[in-house]
Specification:
This is 6-phosphogluconolactonase. By secondary structure, the protein is α/β, with parallel strands linked by helices. It contains 6 helices and 9 strands; from the N terminus they run E-H-E-H-E-E-H-H-E-E-E-H-E-H-E. The protein has one domain: Rossmann fold, CATH 3.40.50.1360. The strands form 2 sheets. It has a 6-stranded parallel β-sheet, covered by helices on one side.
């Protein structure tokens, strides 16, 4: 089954130029969204790949290019650990981005892992409903990473989460990582204006090839679920990661 949405490949030899190109894209989109709607919604991904991007956005090279007081931050997923835990995606973003830029707490939508996983998912859904109001939940940019097993956000292979058609946020115990995860689901991710995968390193090449394959098997390759309804799917890759799809 051919994919029917727009995809843009952005492939760079060096990680530095990859990161600055994605940072430039975020800056440009923030300007357009703020002009259009007075605010910009950015969904952050977790894991290790995006840390340097967040540090770059908070650096002298970029900090003055964005009206941060009009930016609202969300998370694509969260590990079910305290927000002070070293595994927390929130803590990584707080350290690399929020604290250096002195982002106001009412501009940061963290998943509340002090509640049960199911309560946290429900509360986050309510937060999103409040943010979007009666408007369709079109995040301006959703950043995503890709696991070696082709998971993205916390949409892991062979989980119930993959088949959620209605809820925007769900929690599930993920046996593969022996922890509860809270995650945006494909229905809301696919409503974004822009979805940007940030992936680098030769170890991700096979996962990217599977994710991009037109032979769909979403249980095996969950990232294949990411097919924007109206927006653009961007792949920000370094050459090592892109070697099987260039
Ligand atoms: O909470 C998480 O871990 C992320 O949301 C997850 O989807 C991540 O993006 C991939 O696992 C890639 O992680 P790395 O960037 O560390 O390879």
């Amino acid at each position: 089954m051919k994919r029917n949405n727009e995809q843009q490949l952005h492939i760079f030899e060096q990680q530095d130029t990859l990161l600055s190109s994605l940072a430039d894209f975020i800056v440009a989109e923030s300007k357009q969204a703020i002009t259009r709607e007075g605010r910009f919604s950015l969904v952050l991904s977790g894991g290790s790949s995006p840390k340097r991007l967040y540090e770059l956005l908070a650096s002298d090279a970029y900090r003055d290019q964005v009206e941060w007081n009009k930016v609202f931050f969300f998370f694509g997923d969260e590990r079910y650990v305290p927000l002070t835990d070293v595994q927390s995606n929130y803590l990584m973003a707080k350290t690399a981005l929020f604290d250096p830029l002195q982002i106001a707490t009412d501009h940061i939508y963290a998943m509340d892992t002090a509640q049960t996983p199911e309560e946290a998912a429900l509360c986050y859904q309510q937060d999103l409903e409040a943010y979007f109001g009666t408007k369709t939940p079109h995040f301006d940019i959703i950043l995503l990473g890709l696991g070696d097993n082709v998971h993205t956000a916390s949409l892991f292979p062979y989980t119930q989460l993959l088949h959620e058609q209605k809820a925007w946020v769900k929690a599930e115990y993920i046996n593969e990582v022996k922890m509860n995860r809270i995650t945006l689901t494909a229905p809301i991710i696919n409503q974004a204006n822009h979805i940007a995968f940030l992936i680098f390193g030769a170890g991700k090449a096979e996962a990217i090839q599977s994710a991009m394959s037109d032979t769909l098997d979403i249980d095996k390759y969950p990232a294949q679920l990411i097919q924007p309804d109206h927006g653009v799917l961007h792949w920000f890759l370094d050459q090592d990661a892109a070697r099987l799809v260039e």
